[in-house]
Design a protein that fits this description.
The complex is a heterodimer of chains A (225) and B (82). Chain A is 24% helix and 25% strand. Chain A has helices spanning 14-24, 69-78, 87-94, 151-159, 209-224, and strands at 2-7, 28-33, 44-47, 82-85, 101-103, 111-119, 135-142, 146-148, 163-167, 178-182, 188-191. Chain A is globular and about 40 Å long. Chain B has 82 residues and is α+β, with helices and mostly antiparallel strands. Chain B has one domain (2-80): Phosphoribosylformylglycinamidine synthase subunit PurS (Mth169, Chain: A). Chain B has helices at residues 17-28, 54-66, and strands at 2-10, 40-47, 72-80. Chain B has a three-stranded antiparallel β-sheet, with helices on one face. Classes of the chains: A alpha/beta (225), B alpha+beta (82).
Chain lengths: 225, 82
């Protein structure tokens, strides 16, 4: 399986993602510049955390108009897996691939700590290796991670089982402790916590590894069919 | 030349945590009568001429870039700037 890690000016978790794929699940991975206009040949798209364009205007707002974005949207529409982590999640909401918005933490300060997450849906290509309701430890590092959406959107998320990860307690003021959601088709996942920083126990946790293993398993199963 | 003055503000339904922090600071300064602070963004956009769909153009710039319609609303005024 061949992954693309999209690199924007100000991305800073791109290498963490790169190593999570290369060393964590031993698959192919390439860094792809935001200036590129083709993602042909890639089986999965990863949008890393960081501060693209210095978070100018709003986090993810400027990145959402970068040259590569049309191609990200095209592959998402084709059903290819797209994973946005932290700033990647913010970018996916800004480009409309995921509903809702990430805005300032309720405490109005940057939070950097390990958090407990509940796997709310393990019937997705990102979470199939987890148990339903499994509790996992993954770090967060964000100032604008409070998930917000209107009531109608929240109901849609629930009805379609799009809420994939929740915090076990109120971490940043997110509606219903939402930490990660998918699109309706379940091929686009955005999450504020960093699974790519939790792939080795020596670094605190390897609970993030199963997410990448799930993605690889889905792709290998499809190739066999 | 034309100048569009654009004001982007958080919708009332969205908690403005930065505004709250600023309000707390005004209280620290001794202005106990400050009831509420809402923070927004202000943009000045210069255009060299008016297009046929000028208002639509500004709406698009606001909807697709300057404001996030999920949480923010905007208003603008256009003035001659010579």
């Amino acid at each position: 399986m061949k992954f693309a890690v999209i690199v924007f000016p100000g991305s800073n978790c791109d290498m963490d993602l790169y190593y999570a794929i290369k060393d964590g699940v031993n698959e192919q991975v390439e860094l792809v510049s935001y200036k590129e206009t083709s993602l042909d040949g890639f089986d999965g798209i990863l949008i890393p955390g960081g501060f693209s364009y210095g978070d100018y205007l709003r986090s993810g707002a400027i990145a959402s108009h970068a040259p590569i974005i049309n191609e990200v949207k095209r592959l998402a529409e084709l059903g290819k897996p797209v994973l946005g982590i932290c700033n990647g999640f913010q970018i996916l909401t800004e480009i409309g691939l995921l509903p809702g918005t990430l805005t300032n933490n309720r405490q109005n300060r940057f939070i950097c700590e390990d958090v407990q997450l509940i796997v709310e849906n393990n019937q997705t290509q990102f979470t199939s290796e987890y148990e339903l309701n499994e509790q996992i430890t993954v770090p967060i590092a964000h100032g604008e991670g409070r998930y917000y959406c209107d009531d109608e959107t929240l109901q849609m998320l629930k009805d379609n089982h799009q809420i994939v990860f929740k915090y076990t307690h109120d971490v940043n003021g997110s509606i219903e402790e939402i930490a990660g959601i998918t699109n309706k088709q379940k091929n686009v996942l955005g999450m504020m916590p960093h699974p790519e920083r939790a792939i080795e126990t020596i670094l605190g946790s390897d609970d993030g590894l199963k997410l990448f293993q799930s993605m690889v398993k889905k792709q290998k199963d499809e190739v066999q069919l | 030349m034309l100048l569009a003055k654009v004001y982007v503000t958080l919708k009332d339904s969205v908690v403005d945590v930065q505004g709250e922090t600023i309000k707390d600071a005004t209280h620290s300064m001794g202005y106990k009568n400050v009831l509420d602070v809402r923070m927004g963004k202000y943009f000045e956009i210069k255009f060299d001429k008016r297009t046929d769909d000028f208002e639509n153009d500004i709406d698009s710039i606001c909807d697709d870039l300057l404001a996030n319609p999920n949480i923010e609303s905007y208003r603008y005024e256009i003035v001659e700037d010579n």
